[in-house]
Design brief:
The structure holds 2 protein chains of 2 kinds. Chain A is mainly α. Chain A has one domain. Helices cover 81% and strands 0% of the residues of chain A. The termini of chain A are far apart. By secondary structure, chain B is mostly helical. Chain B contains 13 helices and no strands. Chain B has helices spanning 13-19, 22-37, 45-69, 71-76, 92-113, 116-137, 144-164, 169-192, 194-200, 205-208, 211-230, 240-262, 272-298. In chain B, helix 3 packs antiparallel against helix 5 (92-113) and helix 5 (92-113) runs antiparallel to helix 6 (116-137). The termini of chain B are far apart. The chains are: A mainly alpha, B mainly alpha. The A-B interface holds A 1, 3, 8, 11-12, 15-16, 18-19, 22, 33-34, 36-37, 39-41, 44 and B 7, 9-13, 44, 46-47, 49-50, 53, 113.
Chain lengths: 48, 299
Amino acid sequence: MTPSDPNQAELIRNRQRGRARVMALLLGAFVILVFAISIAKIRAGMPH
Amino acid sequence: MTPATPLLPPAHWRDFLALTKPRVMTLVVFTGLCGMLAAPVGVHPVIGFTAILCIALGAGAAGALNQWYESDIDAVMRRTQKRPLPDGRMDRQAALHFGVGLGAFSVLFMGFAVNAVAAAILTVSILFYVLVYTVWLKRRTPQNIVIGGAAGAFPPLIGWAAATGDIALLPVLLFLFVFLWTPPHFWALALFMKSDYAAAGVPMLPVVSGERTTRTQIGLYTIPMAAVAILPWPLGLTGAIYGIAAILLTGWFALLAVRVARRTTHADDAMKPEKALFKYSILYLFVMFGALVVDRWFA
């Protein structure tokens, strides 16, 4: 997509920025959750 | 569905959230959580949280795929025409990729972090909602929500399986309870949203068979639903807290259902009894599952 309208370009940039932030937060939370799951399973002696 | 889709700017992240039907998800998450908490064995809080997260993501994926397939119907119905796809805020392909990706992730993560039984039931529930209800039944038969209602009945089973790795009689009864609760709940909605469904060409029971049949069916389905709701108590699967709550709450449900069943619609009818039954049916499900957990934990 190559928008000629500057407003449209700004809208696209804002949307991309917002999505990138949400994705970063979700990935960070996912990493923490996987770490917590691993610890929980190790402590419970469960198979990984 | 549409032959040519105009190029859209990337959708806002809130539109992806809306695609997951967050309101429906709350009921799914709550019944799944109660199924887990009612299980006789404890589950590690992190594993339990992960199981509920996977149920929520699976439900969100099913909701997204449902909206992807039904965007043409949603565009016609007032209740749904502001959703991201019919409102033109999102590209159809993005919705499809999001739904498939989220569904696959929820199942794989459930299998990795929780257990294979819960992952298998989650898979069945997503496929049932998308393929059996959305694609096959919804546009073809007025029995769509009777059979399709099974999709929404899986979460207590998944929650129980997440805790125990197995299935027992109580979660099966909970499955049957939600399954039998679905027709009166949706037909009450369909009675006061009839014109919307008719405009969209969805063969809901009031559209195809008329209001009289729908009202009778609401009354008839309430009978087995009430029996299954109370049954865990006499079978000794729950204690008196659940039993008494089930009798009182189900009794009130039955009164509202009988009121709807015996009525006929007048000109300029505000459909208050139907709206009351619909609203109460949601509260009823929440409180019944809440009573189950209170009974298990405090009795």
